Amino acid sequence: MFIPQPICTGCQGDHLEWVESSGRGRVYSFTTVHRPPRPEFDVPYVVAIVELDEGWHMLTNLIGCEPNSVQVDMPVEVSFERMSEEITLPMFRPVG
Ligand SMILES: [Zn+2]
Fold it and tell me: Which of 45, 87, 92, 95 is the most exposed place for a label (fewest CB within 10 A)?
């Protein structure tokens, strides 16, 4: 799961570990934001849950496509977007 959790949400145990992903998956669900939470945000943008090929879900943004072209089950791949000197975010864009 991403965002990383301090404990397992199923049993509250600490048996979680980091696992490397291929970075490929499909759009599980999405919504398009038209009203920015802060004026610095450019709208519209797409917030999505991506289901990775390994089976887990990730909350992210879709980039590199028109918001009205996004569809559930669309194949996507990770794109690491540098936001600042300290912050790089994993976003996703359509494959092909
Ligand atoms: Zn557990």
Answer: 87
Residue 78 CA to ligand 1 centre (angstroms): 27
* In contact, 42 and 34? CB cutoff 8 Å: no
The tens digit of pLDDT for each residue in 36-56 reads 989 888 899 999 999 999 998
**Maximum distance among all alpha carbons in the chain?**
41
In the chain, the domains with their CATH numbers are 24-94 (2.40.50)
Q: Quickly state the pLDDT bin for 1 (edges 50, 70, 90).
A: low
Task: Report the candidate in 23, 67, 18 with the shortest Cα–Cα distance to residue 45.
Answer: 67
The reported pTM is 0.85
Residue 73 CA to ligand 1 center (angstroms) comes to 28
Alpha carbon distance 65, 95 (integer Å)? 10
